[in-house]
Amino acid sequence: MTHTTPSLSVRARRGLRNLAIVVASVGAVSTVLAVDSGPASAARPMNALAPEITSSAEAAVAALDAYAESGSVADEQTLAWHRAITARYTARELGYDELAMVDAWSTTDLEHQRAVLGALTQVGVPYRSNTSKEDEGFDCSGLTTYAWAGAGHQLTRQSGSQIAQAQRVDRDAAEAGDLVHYPGHVMMYLGVENAVVHSVNTGRTVEVDTISERKFSRLTFGDPTGG
Questions:
Q1: What's 180's domain CATH number?
Q2: 0.90 exceeded by the pTM?
Q3: Bridge partner residues of 182 (DSSP)
Q4: Which of 14, 46, 51, 75 would you call most buried, defined as having the most Cβ atoms within 10 angstroms of its Cβ?
Q5: In terms of C-beta distances under 8 Å and separation of at least 24 residues, what long-range contacts does 132-135 make, across chains too?
Q6: CA distance 76 to 222
Q7: 63-112 pLDDT per residue, tens
Q8: What is the distance between the alpha carbons of residues 47 and 57, in angstroms, rounded to a whole number?
Q9: CA-based nearest residue to 180, from 153, 209, 203, 151
């Protein structure tokens, strides 16, 4: 596997320890949460917030790439802002605690963040067998391949091989961006409870989703970066 340069993860860890950035992130989240787009509705169609999720994820990807290049405080603040917005919309879509998802994404490394955000830019894109093409179509392993390629890691284009080559992690230790696998299907964990993003199956799309507890407890988790 091809790895991103060590400085990427080092910058992330330094950023998490930087009080000024933490304060900026909290301020951004507070401002975002003050904008009320209305409560989640059980009658709302699946992934009704897809346009909001994808547009905010695209902005967050651009901000992350800029920060990875510059390492500047200003660029990290911009990343914190757009990452928080994307997490907030994703949590709202699934009915999860918004601050918990904001926290789950901000405390993982930049590679995992980049993979999650990259996958979320494709919410609503149709499922297509044996395909991994931006804005056109993905099968399940095609989506994870695409997302992790953006983070600098080339995954094998087969779900079983992807999880076999990843470092196994316990469910309780899994982070946003880690692979979630059951036979024949691979997903990406969103870091909170049973939340995932995946390319589902024929007739559906890339979606943020909640996996049932019965199934979720039997899944396999893996870190493509090797930990």
A1: 3.90.1720.10
A2: no
A3: 185
A4: 75
A5: 132/157
A6: 27
A7: 999 999 999 999 999 999 999 999 999 999 999 999 999 999 999 999 99
A8: 14
A9: 209
Does 120 fall in a domain?
yes
Structural domain includes residue 43: yes
Tokens linked to 181 = 């696998």
For residue 190, tell me if it sits in a domain: yes
In a domain, 167, yes or no: yes
Torsion angles phi and psi, residue 141, rounded to 5? -75, -20
Distances, alpha carbon 27 to alpha carbons 34, 61, 65, 77, 88, in Å: 11, 20, 22, 10, 14
Which tens digits make up the pLDDT trace of 41-56? 444 578 999 999 999 9
Alpha-carbon distance of 69 to 83, in angstroms, equals 17
Domain of 119 in residue numbering reads as: 6-223
At 113, give phi and psi (nearest 5°): -60, -45
Half-sphere exposure of 190 toward its Cβ, with a 13 Å CA cutoff? 31
Check if the beta carbon of residue 86 is closer than 8 Å to that of residue 106.
no
